[in-house]
Amino acid sequence: MRLAILLSGRGSNFEAIHRAFADQIVCVISNRPDARGLACARELGLPAHAIDDRKFPAREAHEEEVLRVLAGAKPDFICLAGYMRLLSPAFVAAYPHRILNIHPSLLPAFPGVDAQAQAVAYGVKVSGCTVHFVDENLDAGPIVVQRVVEVRDDDSSETLAARILEQEHIAYVEALLKLSTQTWRIEGRRVIFE
Ligand code: GRF
What we know:
By secondary structure, the chain is an alpha/beta fold. The protein has 2 domains: about 1-95, Rossmann fold (3-Layer(aba) Sandwich); about 100-194, Formyl transferase, N-terminal domain (Rossmann fold). The protein contains 6 helices and 9 strands. Strand 8 and strand 9 (about 190-194) form a beta hairpin. Helix 5 (about 115-120) packs across helix 6 (about 155-180). It starts with a strand and ends with a strand. The model has no long low-confidence stretch (mean pLDDT about 95).
C-alpha cells in the first residue's frame, strides 16, 4: 500500500499512521510550511513537501501543485490528517474513493470546525471519531470506521478532544488495515467489508 499524507498542523494522526505503516508512506504534504507534522516527516526521512497555499493566487493553482506532487508519488490512498483545506470537486474526482479523512465526532453529528466543543455544548453522552472517504461535501463521504468515546459530565472540549484523539490514532490505523487487507465495496453511502 502506498500512502500519501496531507496535513496542516500537529500531525499526531500522521505519526500514528507512521508507527503502523512506516515503509508505506510515500509522501507527506503540508499547506503550512511550519507545521509540526511536516518537521516530523523530515526527521523521519520521508519525502516532505511544503506547498504553502498563501503563495498561490487561487485554490485551483494550489491544488494543481498538490496534485502534481501526488501524481509523482502514485499513492493508493491519500490520508487527510488535520488538513485544514477543503478539496475541490475536481481534486476529489481525481482520486475517487481513495481520499480518507478523520473527523473528531461521530458523523453525521457535528461536522465542521470545533466538533468536540460542539459535542460538549450540545450535551451528547457519547461522541467519538469517524474515518470516512472524502466526497465533494464537508465531512460527508462514506464511513469506513467509527470509534465511540464517552462524554463525561466534567468534560471540557479540551479533555474530550484529548480522549477522542487517542481513539483517532487507533481508528485511522484500523481503517487503513481494513481497506488494504479486506475485500470491500461501496453501496450508496455504505462501505461494505466482506
Ligand atoms: C484531529 O482532531 C482530526 O480529527 C482533525 O484535526 C485534528 C488533527 O490532529 N481533522 P493531528 O494534526 O493529527 O494531531
